[in-house]
Amino acid sequence: MSHVATVEVHIKDLEALKAACKTLGLEFVEGQQTFRWYGRHVGDYPLPDGFTAEDMGKCEHALRLQNNAQAYEVGVVKRRDGKPGYTLMYDFWAGGYGLEEAIGKQAGRLRQQYSAQVATKQARKQGYRVTQSMQQDGSLRLVCTKR
């Protein structure tokens, strides 16, 4: 079964995405043009907006778990809405065979880490020192202090 969804995040900074991947134990595979998923769209779940069945599994780059060769992968795909940047797609059937454990439900951990990397990069450009800490509720806390 295929259950491919797009992740609600607008990727504009691939370096920040690479850093987020490293934090989560994912490998960013530059130039990989397909991502591991069920392998065909069987019509049991709606296609992501702007994509056709033929688009499924195709990407510009991919994210994969470093220690699980069976897990599905995340495709880093050019946006289809005319805006620059990328969107993320993955097949969440059966938890992506371990993928969702790393990236979180609806890729929540991956979105959080990407956003933190972008914010940290911008804060440092403005002269702030940034520290991160994971809270007990799973949220990520960024503390910015002027140098």
Descriptive overview:
By secondary structure, the chain is an alpha+beta fold. The chain has a domain at 4-105. The protein contains 3 helices and 7 strands, in the order βαββββααββ. It has helices at 14-24, 99-103, 108-125, and strands at 4-11, 26-30, 61-65, 74-78, 86-91, 128-134, 140-146. The strands form 2 sheets. Strands 1-5-4-3-2 form a 5-stranded antiparallel beta sheet, covered by helices on one side. A hairpin with a 7-residue loop joins β4 and β5. The chain is globular. The termini are far apart. The model has no long low-confidence stretch (mean pLDDT 91).
Low-confidence stretches: none
Mean pLDDT: 91
Q: Which percent range fits the helix content?
A: 10-25%
How many strand segments? 7
* Total of DSSP H or I helical runs spanning 4+ residues: 3
Cα radius of gyration in angstroms: 16 Å
Instruction: Tell me, briefly, the overall form.
Output: globular
Largest sheet: 5 strands, antiparallel
Tell me the β content. 25-35%
H/E topology pattern? EHEEEEHHEE
Structural class: alpha+beta
Q: What does the oligomeric state look like here?
A: single chain
Biggest sheet: strand arrangement: 1-5-4-3-2
Termini separation comes to 52 Å
Summarize the structure.
The strands form two sheets. The protein has a five-stranded antiparallel β-sheet, covered by helices on one side. A two-stranded antiparallel ribbon has the order 6-7.
Structural features:
7 strands, alpha+beta, 147 residues
